[in-house]
Amino acid sequence: ARAHNNRGNIFLARDQIQDAGQQYDQALSLDPTYADAFFNRAIAHERNQNFQAALQDFTDAAKLYRSQGNDRRGREAQAKADQMQQALGTTPRRQLRLIPISKKFE
Predict the structure, then answer these.
(1) Which secondary structure element, helix H or strand E, spans residue 85, and what is its range?
(2) Ordered per-residue pLDDT tens for the chain, 106 residues
């Protein structure tokens, strides 16, 4: 899982969002409690302007970080989730357009 997450980070740094998302999907299929992969996939969704999926992944990351005793990262992920919620709440027409069929990158 860690190798896929790291490859995703490389793709994300190169602005290859689709490839990054697929790597994070792979990481999460191997370890569904991998908070960093949720957080990183949320960033990929955010860059892809898929704000609804980003909100869900930031929220999941925040819960996992807290359950794993990483309160600092939990607060960071929750702050990002709150930003996504605010963005979605202020642009309802855009929200409808951006709701994903799946959280996965395909």
Answers:
(1) helix 71-90
(2) 999 999 999 999 999 999 999 999 999 999 999 999 999 999 999 999 999 999 999 999 999 999 999 999 999 999 999 999 988 885 444 444 444 445 566 5
